[in-house]
Design a protein that fits this description.
The chain is mainly alpha-helical and 119 residues long. It has one domain. It has 7 helices and no strands. The longest helix has 20 residues. The protein is globular, with a radius of gyration of 14 Å.
Length: 119
């Protein structure tokens, strides 16, 4: 994904960004549907996405936060990961967005197991 983001930045191409976001969403949705999340792989994806994007360009960030908040198996896997603190210590932006999304979800009392496209 990092190579795609570099090319996208170089070409300043919104289409490549949208393709990358939809591909990421498809992968996350597939992993959720098959209950095969790899927490370390997802953690790496968070790190790479947040280091390669900025706060105002947050479509990919929204995909990741949406998935982490709305797919219970992923959220539980992240929270129960023995490396959670170490993996996310430098990603306060992700954690703040994730907690905010979780809080909204819990206030509504909703679970949502659909494709991880941002609202």
């Amino acid at each position: 994904m990092n190579q795609m983001q570099s090319l996208m930045k170089m070409l300043d191409c919104a289409l490549l960004k949208n393709i990358a976001c939809h591909k990421l969403a498809e992968i996350i949705y597939h992993d959720n549907k098959n209950n095969c999340f790899d927490i370390l792989k997802f953690s790496k994806c968070v790190r790479e996405t947040y280091s390669a994007t900025y706060n105002g360009d947050n479509l990919m960030r929204k995909v990741i936060v949406y998935a982490a908040a709305n797919f219970d198996s992923l959220a539980h896997g992240l929270l129960n990961s023995p490396n959670f603190k170490e993996e996310f210590k430098d990603h306060g932006d992700f954690l703040a967005a994730w907690i905010s999304k979780l809080a909204k979800k819990w206030r509504k009392g909703a679970t949502n197991e659909r494709a991880p496209f941002p609202a």
